[in-house]
Design goal:
The protein is mainly α. The chain has three helices and no strands. It is elongated, with a radius of gyration of 18 Å. The relative contact order is 0.16.
Length: 89
Amino acid sequence: MAVGWSRDGDVQEQIDATVESGVQLARSRLSKGESSTHCEECGDAIPEDRRKAIPGVRLCVDCQSELEKGQKKASTLFNRAGSKDSQLK
Ligand SMILES: [Zn+2]
């Protein structure tokens, strides 16, 4: 059935988006060795515990979670656009 086909496509898009943002997240977390003492986004001091816990950390907790939220939002928008497109066909 055509409906079944387009649902499979949506699921695959969601998986791709999830994997992609996961990789980006991992990259931003593992960015080259040294941790920043201050957040690159807002300039707040990053607690030493956080720097030890996440080698190469560049963002404070607030900015990191904002970044993660933004990535999730972008994935959701992408999937919505994909679903809408499928419904038109
Ligand atoms: Zn920050």
